[in-house]
Design goal:
The complex is a heterodimer of chains A (450) and B (347). Chain A has 450 residues and is mainly alpha-helical. Chain A has helices at residues 4-20, 23-43, 46-79, 82-116, 118-121, 123-152, 170-174, 177-207, 212-248, 250-257, 290-296, 318-347, 355-363, 366-383, 404-435, 443-449, and strands at 157-159, 165-167, 263-264, 268-275, 280-287, 302-303, 386-388, 392-393. Chain B has 13 helices and two strands; from the N terminus they run αααααααααααββαα. A two-stranded antiparallel sheet of chain B has the order 1-2. In chain B, α1 (2-33) packs antiparallel against α6 and α7 (166-190) packs antiparallel against α11. Classes of the chains: A mainly alpha (450), B mainly alpha (347).
């Protein structure tokens, strides 16, 4: 473990994984808050405004943690991955800089108005500031996905005389064919997190019989959004993303599925442990021919296994990649089952009395976080051994003069810092939930009194 | 084109220092000017809606630097690895200090975050000055354009200097004084009563320190890096810089005595612009000088990205900046005027 490469990889993996716990909730809650604000204005019902204000507070704390854990990400391209930055900066710095100029300014300016300006702005403009925060956070995600998509499937570049990649087409970069499904799949995942968290808080209020009128609002919106997003996540977005991988990263697909040998009518493994030494799955439970059908829409189609590719192009951690992918898909399937059932009960007006279902909803909010994390692990482990797919290996990208010792020093520093952050975060969010929406000060009342 | 991008990146960095400078400054003087809970809440309210937006300028400037000069970004960020990581930790602590202080109504909680906010602001101001000192002084670049800076070596300015030496520490102190004064002007502008009086006192005491450190750092810079004078010899435009700096220092003193807070704050902004513009003008076209062999220095020419990127970048940069300036003009106008405790909502 004194290998600098491993330390730099762990450094990025740890900080990005921790960071992404926050933006997925911000991006998931943002559209839901816009919906609550819209309902408040449409129905002229102050409860929706209070509900929006409650989630704004959760959003505010969450956004702050997203910002302070996000700053290290932009720095780390240079600090830990200098050779990569030098090589790829001619392309990906465009989207990273555009994120700053187009998304960060927008988000931070309107968040200030959104959190501090409700009274002075009036309801219409406050709605607008909520909407702009939503636009900013989703735009930010777009630029990051474009950056990642270029690493997954490089387009619109040329290799210059000094060996680094230079951009040749701005539009090809922004509309990389990889981007579309990945973006939709990622945003669907964020909405699942936001919706599950909202439904869980709602279920908690209804189960514990406090502020029940708000619990019901949260359940209604949370369950509705969750069922739509969960279905969307498997089809079409997950399906589309999977076909992208099959087309452009076939070795990755084989590793994700644990398919070691090329087969006609390849099965999908539901359960099984990859045994890389023996090149097979241990204890497999398979659905025959399903992989061929899902990948090529033909039951008998040939799917290339890992044996079709040279060993040095195999992802370097096949078991972790395989499990990440299977955890993501497994949880995604469970989300559909839970949310369909909950939505059915909601439609039959039995959800608020079905305490067993409320218990499930209350306890299931951590799982979208796991599924989102596993999804990103699938994408990035699947990209290995490449840092830029087909162009630059991960082992060539890290900073040449930053030693493993210095890497460990700062990695441990981040771990300590993030441990403290976690405690403070959970404490603050718990306080907001304890306090609840009912007793929040109303901005509208004072307008009426004035 | 690369010269234009040099100017644009410099412009964004200047915008960062002027804007985030005042909220860093407010943090530095926080514990001195605000004694009671109410007063401290006032100081935080004065920067509450804007500090995050100000900090975005750092990210946007960093992004633009990476965009225009990728090799410089790769070299300097990996070379200043340790101090940058510390800056990151300080930025995190400071963000928490500002935002979390008022979340819990408990004197111990508040004192803790007041302290975190103030100390991290102070250290950040020093670190940013040290960073500028390092860039002016130069670092031991190798033939590939990389280096790894030790935190300190023998505290002398030599071919193998550390991040901290007498020169960079001096610039760090200059930065501390300049931002403390800048912040004091801002807090005076945004508040009333005891907080305003104390801020004005700090601004006037700080003014003397600022004059002394400015002169001292000027002399030191000429002795550490005599080449900075070259650009000034070649063109007259450069000589407006020392005039602007001198005039802004004079104006700061004058307006402070008259109690015109806004004019004093603008003078201190002008001072920061002048100092940074002067440094950038003296450096051009070098971005990071090599302390080992001048031929290894990183310049705008050997670090720039492709010309196509730079041309396209100009278009989206202008569009994005117009939008950003629009938001911020609106934001500052919206939250203009003195802050009070009653209008609070949200937190």
């Amino acid at each position: 473990m004194d290998d600098a490469l491993i330390v730099h990889r762990l450094h990025f993996a740890f900080t990005i994984t921790y960071h992404y716990l926050f933006p997925q909730l911000t991006m998931g809650l943002a559209p839901l808050i816009v919906i609550l604000k819209t309902l408040a204005i449409r129905k002229k019902d102050e409860r929706y405004n209070k509900a929006a204000r409650f989630w704004m507070k959760v959003f505010g704390v969450n956004f702050l943690f997203g910002v302070i854990t996000g700053i290290p990400m932009e720095f780390q391209f240079g600090t830990n991955w200098a050779k990569f930055s030098q090589y790829a900066g001619g392309v990906i710095a465009t989207t990273l800089a555009m994120e700053g100029v187009f998304a960060f300014f927008l988000e931070s300016a309107f968040l200030g108005l959104f959190l501090y300006g409700e009274k002075r702005l009036g309801q219409k403009w406050h709605w607008f500031s909520a909407f702009m925060v939503f636009v900013g956070s989703w735009l930010s995600a777009y630029f990051i996905i474009v950056t990642d998509a270029w690493m997954q499937h490089p387009v619109g570049y040329t290799i210059a005389a000094d060996g680094s990649a230079h951009l040749t087409s701005f539009w090809a970069l922004l509309f990389n064919p990889w981007v579309g499904w990945q973006y939709l799949h990622n945003m669907g995942g964020a909405v699942i997190t936001g919706a599950f968290v909202m439904a869980a808080v709602g279920a908690f209020y209804v189960l514990s019989r406090r502020q029940e009128e708000y619990g019901r609002i949260f359940l209604r919106l949370g369950v509705t959004a969750a069922v739509i997003a969960s279905v969307f996540q498997i089809f079409p977005s997950g399906d589309g993303q999977g076909k992208m991988v099959a087309l452009h990263q076939p070795a990755t697909l084989a590793a994700m599925e644990g398919l070691f040998k090329t087969e006609k009518g390849a099965p999908i493994a539901i359960v099984g442990q990859p045994n890389v030494a023996e090149q097979r799955l241990d204890n497999p439970i398979l659905i025959p021919k399903a992989l061929s059908f899902l990948t090529y829409n033909r039951w008998g189609a040939e799917v290339k296994g890992l044996d079709a590719y040279p060993r040095d192009q195999w992802p370097d951690n096949i078991p972790l990649l395989y499990f990440s992918y299977h955890i993501m898909v497994g949880l995604g399937t469970i989300f559909i089952a839970i949310t369909l059932l909950a939505a059915f009960l909601l439609w039959r007006k039995r959800l608020y009395q079905a305490r067993w279902m409320l218990w499930i909803l209350m306890l299931s909010f951590p799982f979208p976080y796991i599924a989102n994390t596993a999804g990103w692990m699938t994408a990035e482990l699947g990209r290995q051994p490449w840092l830029v797919y087909g162009l630059m290996r991960t082992s060539e990208g890290f900073s040449p003069l930053v030693s493993a010792g210095n890497g460990w020093f700062t990695l441990l520093g981040f771990m300590g810092m993030y441990a403290v952050l976690s405690v403070i975060f959970l404490f603050l969010i718990w306080r907001e939930i304890e306090h609840g929406p009912r007793f929040l000060k109303s901005a509208v009342k004072t307008e009426g009194a004035a | 084109m690369e010269s234009l991008w040099f100017a644009l990146v410099a412009l964004m960095l200047v915008a960062y220092v002027v804007l985030d400078g005042f909220d860093l400054g407010a943090g530095i003087i926080h514990l001195l000017v605000a004694k009671t809970n109410e007063e401290r809440q006032l100081v935080l309210r004065s920067i509450g809606p804007v500090w995050d937006g100000n900090e975005v300028w750092l990210l946007a400037a960093g992004g633009a630097l990476y965009f225009a000069f990728p090799l410089l970004y790769a070299s300097s960020f990996s070379g200043f690895y340790l101090p940058l990581m510390m800056v990151l930790w300080l930025l995190m602590l400071r963000g928490m200090g500002i935002e979390l202080r008022s979340h819990v109504d408990d004197p111990l909680w508040r004192s803790f975050f007041d302290f975190i906010f103030s100390v991290s602001s102070l250290l950040l101001a020093v670190f940013f000055g040290v960073a500028i000192g390092n860039v002016v002084r130069g670092v031991p670049l190798n033939s590939e354009g990389y280096f790894f800076a030790a935190l300190w070596t023998d505290l002398r300015v030599g071919p193998q200097p550390g991040v901290l030496d007498w020169y960079t520490v001096l610039i760090g102190l200059l930065s501390l004084a300049a931002l403390a004064v800048h912040g004091a002007h801002y807090v005076a502008l945004k508040t009333d009563g005891g907080v305003r009086d104390r801020s004005r006192r700090i601004a006037s005491l700080g003014w003397y320190a600022l004059i002394a450190l400015t002169l001292l750092s000027l002399v030191a810079t000429f002795s550490v890096r005599p080449q900075v004078i070259d650009n000034y010899k070649n063109s007259f435009i450069g000589w407006s810089v020392p005039l602007i700096v001198a005039a802004s220092l004079g104006a700061m003193f004058h307006f402070l005595k008259q109690g015109r807070d806004l004019a004093a704050f603008l003078s201190s902004s002008t001072y920061l612009v002048g100092m940074l513009a002067g440094a950038a003008y003296g450096m051009y076209p070098t971005l990071l000088p090599a302390s080992t062999d001048p031929a290894l220095s990183l310049t705008i020419f050997n670090t720039k990205t492709g010309d196509y990127s730079l041309r396209v970048g100009l278009i989206w940069w202008i569009v994005g900046m117009l939008l950003a300036v629009g938001y911020f003009t609106f934001l500052y106008r919206f939250f203009r005027g003195k802050v009070t405790l009653e209008e609070g909502e949200g937190h």
